[in-house]
Design brief:
The protein has 557 residues and is α/β, with parallel strands linked by helices. The chain folds into five domains: 97 residues, no CATH class; 38 residues, no CATH class; 110 residues, Nucleotidyltransferase, domain 5 (2-Layer Sandwich); 117 residues, no CATH class; 43 residues, Arc Repressor Mutant, subunit A. The chain contains 22 helices and twelve strands. Strands 1, 2, 5, 6 and 7 form a five-stranded mixed beta sheet that branches. It has a five-stranded mixed beta sheet with strand order 10-9-8-11-12, sandwiched between helices. The protein has a two-stranded antiparallel sheet with strand order 3-4.
Length: 557
């Protein structure tokens, strides 16, 4: 008999019997409570009108499906003024009325649908012995109620692409808890303002530099402060620096070419030189002796085996000169007589077990190939054609490998004839240089830092402009002791028009930028949730509507 605690059976029920087969477990229960409460008026009813069997699906047990058969009674309400005359007894906390699943199975299906979606969730549910359709899982997700958000103080808002370039929505994140609070169907200022008015407790709004979001925050939450996102501020600054570098592209390209030109006697041939200007060449320090690289254990073992073979070969010839017969030599040295005869047939020790001792089809053409190599003819394709005319039937790859070995034996190196000259690399574009500039100095590579130093040396105006841009970047990264107002005063009188326009834009949004410099809030967590939203949206192959997407984003496990 199964304990009722294992099934989580409703209160007042008893186990009638259970049936176990290969695929499922069927459990029959009966409700034995003497009374049942009317769902409308709450009166306790004792009069039983009829009975019926309610069929439910429950969580699996030991890898098998669990089907419940519960004998449920219909009662007659004792109150004459109650609109519900006949009702079936309820199973509170176990199964909702008119459902075919228990509450815990329904919650499990909801979690699977929220995490995996319809098709993938259905495949997993089948493996877990709770088979259901993809539509059922998605319906469970759509029926979820929004979680209570609690008091909201600091929120971050950003847009996300429902269809890039055509349709956008808005995501709202609680920055204190890093939780998604809501998804809005568009990014209009009116929609965001209405949402903010519905949450009057918001004290701070973090946003990008969109004019629509700035207007929405001003209209919907006038009591809240606004924080401009630091990443977007650096992005706008990088774009301004890109325009600066484009204006000085001619001088920058000349400086980078001079930086990458190899040093040589003709580098400054046009510059006047005097005896005093020519530095005296100092003797180079002697190079340290190169220590020999130790041989690998495998090569040492191979050389040791080679020495043993050579010693055995010499020993066979020594005993043979003393007049020992082959049988006695074989007994003393532990060899076969056939090996002794092979040793005696050779005057030198053979190169057994050594690389390069294999025979090749080209051994008969070795002298001819060596003569052609000595003449300087190392075109392998032409050699292969000429060898084919002489009766050779091997492949081009075999000729190529053989010629490489013969070149190595001759101490030569194969060079490509008529090889194309590698193209001269183009100088980095202004966009690429701006990305190198916006990177933190400690994260720049030495070639990148050398290019930026060369750019600063092009002109005093360019160096001052880049120094001014560095000052704003340090403010945003909280690495400067200066103030935003002092920087704006300098930026608005900058000789470069791109940086002046950037400073004017910052001046129009000075309060939110000052908050970004002084406070810790930013839209970084919002961008992370936007990436998660994109993953969920693409997982559903674009077939989900806004209601399903919102439910999955807000309730994903």
């Amino acid at each position: 008999m199964l304990p009722l605690e294992l099934l989580g059976a409703p209160e007042g029920s008893c186990l009638v019997h259970a049936c176990l087969d290969v695929e499922q477990l069927t459990v029959h229960l009966a409700i034995t409570a003497p009374t049942a409460a009317c769902p409308v008026c709450g009166s306790d009813a004792r009069r039983v009108r009829s009975r019926y069997t309610r069929r439910l699906e429950d969580l699996p047990c030991l890898g098998r499906r669990v089907r419940l058969r519960i004998a449920v009674r219909r009662f007659v309400c004792p109150r004459s003024d109650c609109p519900r005359r006949i009702f079936a007894e309820r199973l509170p906390g176990f199964a909702a009325p008119r459902t075919r699943t228990t509450d815990r199975l329904r919650q499990t299906q909801t979690d699977i649908g929220s995490s995996l979606g319809g098709e993938a969730g259905s495949r997993l549910a089948t493996r877990l012995a709770i088979p259901t359709s993809p539509d059922t899982l998605l319906r469970r997700v759509k029926q979820l109620k929004d979680k209570p958000a609690g008091p909201l103080r600091v929120v971050g808002i950003d847009d996300w692409a429902w269809r890039k370039g055509q349709c956008y929505g808005t995501i709202v994140v609680d920055l204190e808890r890093s939780d998604v609070i809501d998804l809005l169907p568009d990014r209009d200022a009116d929609t965001v303002a209405v949402w903010l008015k519905a949450h009057p407790g918001v004290e701070m709004v973090s946003r990008d530099r969109s004019a629509a979001y700035a207007q929405a925050a001003t209209e919907g939450a006038p009591q809240a402060g606004q924080v401009a996102d630091r990443w977007h501020l650096l992005k706008n600054l990088r774009e301004a620096v890109e325009h600066v570098l484009e204006r000085h592209s001619a001088a920058i390209n000349a400086a980078l070419k001079a930086l990458e030109a190899p040093p040589g006697p003709d580098r400054d041939a046009t510059a006047p030189q005097t005896d005093a200007a020519v530095p005296t060449a100092e003797p180079l320090p002697p190079e340290p002796p190169v220590e020999p690289v130790p041989e690998s254990p495998r090569l040492q073992a191979k050389r040791a085996k080679r020495r043993q073979l050579a010693e055995r070969f010499d020993r066979v010839h020594e005993l043979h000169k003393r007049g020992y017969p082959a049988a006695r030599i074989a007994r003393e040295l532990g060899l076969s007589r056939r090996s002794v005869f092979r040793y005696l047939q050779r005057e030198t020790c053979p190169a057994w077990h050594l690389r390069g001792s294999q025979r090749s089809r080209l051994d008969g053409y070795r002298e001819w190939i060596d003569a052609r190599i000595a003449e300087g003819f190392i075109n392998v394709a032409a050699l292969h054609r000429q060898l084919t005319e002489r009766g050779f039937k091997g492949s081009y790859g075999g000729v190529y490998a053989f010629v490489r070995k013969r070149l190595g034996a001759a101490g030569k190196k194969r060079e490509r004839l008529n090889a194309a000259t590698p193209p001269v690399p183009r100088p980095p574009s202004a966009r690429q240089l701006s990305f190198e500039w916006v990177r933190r100095p400690e994260k720049r590579k030495p070639p990148e830092q050398a290019r930026l130093d060369a750019i600063r040396g092009c002109s005093v105006e360019l160096a001052e402009t880049l120094d001014l841009a560095d000052g704003f970047a340090n403010l945003i990264r909280k690495q400067s002791t200066g103030t935003l107002s002092a920087w704006l005063t300098r930026g608005e009188v900058s000789p470069d028009p791109a940086l002046r326009r950037f400073a004017e834009g910052i001046r129009s949004d000075e309060a939110s930028v000052q908050a970004a410099v002084a406070q810790k809030w930013s839209n970084g967590p919002v961008e992370g949730h936007v990436n998660r939203l994109k993953t969920i949206k693409r997982q559903m192959y674009g077939r989900a509507g806004f209601v399903l997407l919102r439910a999955r984003v807000l309730n994903a496990a």
